[in-house]
């Protein structure tokens, strides 16, 4: 597996339909927390590759208009879809966002956008965590699941100086059964999931050791309602818990409606996440599942309070 990093460009800015990269100096050690001086909102949204590009891009623009500071998107593999988002939110004369959209389309399917006035971009990366795998016709998606990547950005919040690592994911589907345990009938999918979680754990440990606050976003394709009860060793509640991460649902409660709407109309599944590394200096304070968007997923918005170091 690979962990590609962009070259150091100082304070230069590179903008293109395929990506945007700004890099600065590496972060230092975190200081003790002080009083709350900033609030940020983080959104995770699976845009649904099957819907029309125009509708998907309109959804992302609407999310930007909510005032959210970080947009972590999934199913953005279409180059045209990504290019349109860049034109409307990143590269226009009065655009307020910057973005990390690595090429080619596969790792670029989980881009991260952030408000330039709120954050300095310190670094970026795209790590391949699984190989393309033939899984057969059972389950969601194609018979050959493409390689999976975790894209990440290192941000420094301007007002507080806090260092944030945001890791955006889209995990393999059809890995969980109704009672919350692993789907043992599809062992190849479970093997992919196991590799993904192991790589994610290693990344969290590495970024935690660098002194930053860690956020893990994305469509993890495991229902938190049952995962938190069963705590299967393969799935996020257990695996991310082992490295100190906590889902917003654990702290702020499970909402009545879910983030994923099934073809049957059932909408209780919570498979989209904002995980965070609990620290006094970054605390979740609000959580909303937004309605009225075109995807079969609903955006999850989580607000955090940040403190300035003493």
Helix/strand structural class: alpha+beta
Order of strands, main sheet, comes to 1-8-11-12-13-15-14
Beta content: 25-35%
Uncertain spans: 2-29
Which terms summarize this structure?
310 residues, Deoxyribonuclease I, Chain A, 7-stranded mixed β-sheet
Question: Could you explain how this protein is built, in words?
Answer:
With 310 residues, the protein is an alpha+beta fold. The protein has a single domain, classed as Endonuclease/exonuclease/phosphatase (Deoxyribonuclease I, Chain A), CATH 3.60.10. 22% of the residues lie in helices and 32% in strands. The chain is built from six helices and 17 strands. It has helices spanning 53-65, 79-90, 187-209, 224-230, 236-242, 248-252; strands at 3-5, 14-16, 19-21, 33-46, 70-74, 97-100, 112-115, 119-128, 133-134, 144-145, 149-157, 163-170, 213-219, 246-247, 272-276, 282-289, 300-309. It has a seven-stranded mixed sheet. Strands 6-7-5-4-17-16 form a six-stranded mixed sheet. Helix 1 packs parallel to helix 2 (79-90) and helix 3 packs parallel to helix 5 (236-242). It is globular, with a radius of gyration of 18 Å. The protein starts with a strand and ends with a strand. Mean pLDDT is 89; it is low at 2-29.
